[in-house]
Amino acid sequence: MHTITTARAGTWRLPVILLGISGLRLDRGTRYRPARLLLFALTAALYYLLTPILTTPAVATAYAGTVWLLYYGGLCLTLGGPVRTALIARFGEDRAYALYEVALGLLFMNQGFAQAVVIHAHGNSLPAAIPSWAAYVTGAALMAVGTFYKVWAARTAGLDTYYCRDMFTGRPLTDASELVAAGPYRHLRNPMYGAGNLHAYGWALWSGSLAGLAFAAAFQAGIYLFYHLCERPFIQRAYVRR
């Protein structure tokens, strides 16, 4: 998430923020809300039906790897390549962003579920030298800290920033003169991608999953790769140099 936040960042209620970072936006009017709710429910039902298959070790690993490629490859191709301009030319900016937003929300859902099935499929695989109580305590602490920072950062920056709306439209969300450091951005350079991802490591530790720790690191490395290749150059171009 951007290292710069605005004084007018969204202050949505906690349930809306939690659903938003999970893939379902309910803060952008009512036009597409029924379709979003239906798609969210159908996806959750599909996850439930496919859980016995997805939680087998080989399938879980392949699924998580596929999600990694679609998520970070899709973000880079869309926001750092020609896909967004083609969508805008075809559908117009508002409709194109709505389609992108739904697709990104599905990727958010799949990212979380992919890590969940990997942790389930490869549970109890930590070295025996690590006491179970230490894994529980450390895991619980990391989950609490990571969730707190992710929600705090998303609330501070706003869900439009969380979904990279400025990158999709190709212009800043606000005037550069109004940018301020706020919330967790006052003391952390990038709390969303840093501290905000600690919950994934905590969940893996709690479940004793060595593969879960590896995939948590892979997904965090992927978002930093996207940040350095696509997001940071946009911030420099659209905000800092204005």
TrEMBL record:
GO terms for biological process: methylation. GO terms for cellular component: endomembrane system. GO terms for molecular function: methyltransferase activity. Its main location: membrane. Keywords: Membrane, Methyltransferase, Transferase, Transmembrane, Transmembrane helix. Coiled coil: none annotated. The keyword Cytoplasm does not apply. The chain crosses the membrane at residues 37-63, 69-87, 99-121, 133-152, 203-227. It is found in: Endomembrane system. It comes from the Bacteria. It is a multi-pass membrane protein. This is Protein-S-isoprenylcysteine O-methyltransferase Ste14. The lineage of its organism: Bacteria, Bacillati, Actinomycetota, Actinomycetes, Streptosporangiales.
